[in-house]
Amino acid sequence: MDSGRLPRHALAMPPKPARSPPNATRTVEVLAYPAVQLLDVTGPLQVFASANDLMAKAGEARPYAIRLVAPSGLNVYASAGIALVADPLPPVETSVDTLIVAGGEGVDTASVDAELVDWLRERTRRARRTASICTGAFLLAACGVLDGRRAATHWLHCAELARRYPAVHVESDPIFVRDDSVWTSAGVTAGIDLALALVEEDLGRTIALAVARYLVVFLKRPGGQAQFSEALSLQAAEDQFGALHDWISKHLAEDLSLPVLASQAGMSERSFSRHYAQSTGLTPARAVERLRVEGARRLLLDTRLPVKRISQRCGFGSEETMRRSFLRLLNATPHDYRARFRS
C-alpha cells in the first residue's frame, strides 16, 4: 500500500473535534496481567502502531506513544504461554490519553487484586478515555468505572458480568459500546474494531481506513453490529440441521413454510417442529425470519438495491413486513440500519 498517496488535508482533519490537541502525541497504555489474552493486547497495539507507521510515511509526526504496562512489569505471560515485556504501572498522576484494559483468563485474579484495582480506578480518572477488550470489562467493573454505563463483553460472559455487577447495563449484542469516554468491546478480534474506531476518532476516516487495509481487516464493524451472525448462532444444531440452514440461506425468496422445511429435512411436520425447537431453541418460523433478516442486512450494506427490492429478494413479501422484523430483531428500520452501518 502506498501510504504516501494519502491526502495530506485528510490527515489533519478528524471527523469530530478531539479533546486533546490534534498534533499532540497521545499516550496509549494497554494494561496486561498474568494469563492475559494475547490478541486482546497485540491486536489493538498493532492498530496504533500501524497508524504511527502510516503517518510517518506520509511525512507527519507519529501520533501515538504506545506502552504495555503490568503490575509486575518485565515479563508477563499470556494465556498462550508467550511472554510479553511490559513496563511497571506508571504513577497514577502521570498523564495518559487512552487507557485500554485487556481481557483474558487471568481477569478474575486481577479483579480481586486490591492494589491493581485502586491503581486502575485512579488511572481512569486521569485518562481522556478508557476502554476494555473482551473480559477486560470485568476489571473495569470491579473499579466501579462501568457503574450506570452501557457496556459490552464477549457474548459468552455477558450474563456473568450482569450478575456480578448489576449496576452495569450489559449489552450482549454489540461488537463494541461507547458510553461517553468509556469504550468496551466484545471478544478478542472486536478489540481491533474498537481500536480502529479510536483511531478514526483521533485522526479521521482516511487514516483508519488505511490502517484497516494494511492489516487486511474491515475498516470497522460498527459497534451496533451483532457479535455473531444468525447462521453462526444456529450452529449448535449444525449436525442435524446444518444442511437445512444452508439450503434456507440460498432460497430466502421462496416458500419456507413448515411443510416445505419438514419435507426438505425428510421429516414429518410434527417431528420436525419438535426436533428443531429442541436443537435450536427456536420455532422454524422464527429461525427463517432471523436468517431472512441476516440476508437483508448483508444486502443493505453490500449493495445499493432499494429496500423494497431487498425485501422481495429475502422473502419478506413486502417492505412493511421486513420493517417489522428489523424493528423486532435489531431495533432499527432497514433504512436506519443502512444509514448507520454502511461504510
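the 2nd protein, sequnce then structure:
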Amino acid sequence: MEYWVNPINPSFSRERFREGMDILMQAWTQPGPSRYDGEFYQYKYLNPFPLPYQKPHPKIYIVGSGTEETVNYAAEKGYGYSQVFTPIAAQLKSFENYRATATRNGHKPDSESIIISAMAFVAETEEKAIEEGKDHILFYFKNLLKTDSHLNSPPGYLPVARLRKRLESGAIQETEVTWEGLTSVYRTVLGTPDQVAERIAFWCEQAQSSKIILHLHVGDMPHWKAVKNLTLFAEEVIPRVRNLTSSVFQVAAE
C-alpha cells in the first residue's frame, strides 16, 4: 500500500527489489569503494565499513506471500525463504516448490532454509490460555491487519498472469476473520506448555524447518500477559520442543 502514497511505479516493484538486493550483495562482499550504476539506483561511492563478519555474507531470507516469482527468486539465488499470513497448506506447497527449484539450481536446501512463523499463548490450562490470549490475537488480525484488498494490489503490482489467477480463484474477495479459521489453517496455538510444544514440534517437522519466528506479544496484549507468555514459553515450552524434535530439526528459536 506504500505505492499509493509514493511517486513510484508499482509495475517495477520486482525489478527494483532485485536491484536493491544486488546492491546489498555488492556492499557486503566487495571491499569498497565500488560503483553501482543500475536502472533504479546509482551509487558513485559504495563503501560499507566494516564488512560483515560472516563470510561470504550473512544468511539471507526472502519473505513473501507465496507468489511463484518470489519463491523462484529465493530458490535460484540460494537464499532462505519464509511465508506469512497464508494458509499452512499453501505454505507447504510453496516450500516444496522452493526446495525443488533450489536443488535444480545447484543449491542444497536444509532445515534452516525455511522459516515458519507462529502465534502462541501459554498458560496453566488450555481454557486459561484461550481466555487470556484469544481476544488479542483476534484484535491483531481483525484490526491491525485490516485493509481493503485493492490497497494491497495497486495497478501493476501483480504480474498479469498472477492477477488473472487470483481473480479467477476469488482470492481477492474480502473474507471475514474467524477464530476457527485462525486456529485451523494458520499456525496459532493456545494451551499448556505440553500442548504448545507438541504443536510447534509438529509444525517444524511438517515444514522440515528448524527455524521459527514466534509472535508472543500480539495485538493489544497488556504488559503482564506478554511477560507471562514470554516467561512460560522460554522456561517451559522451548525445552519440551527440543526434546520432541528430532536431531535433524532441532529448533533454533528466533
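The longest strand covers residues 114-122. The chain has nine helices and eight strands.
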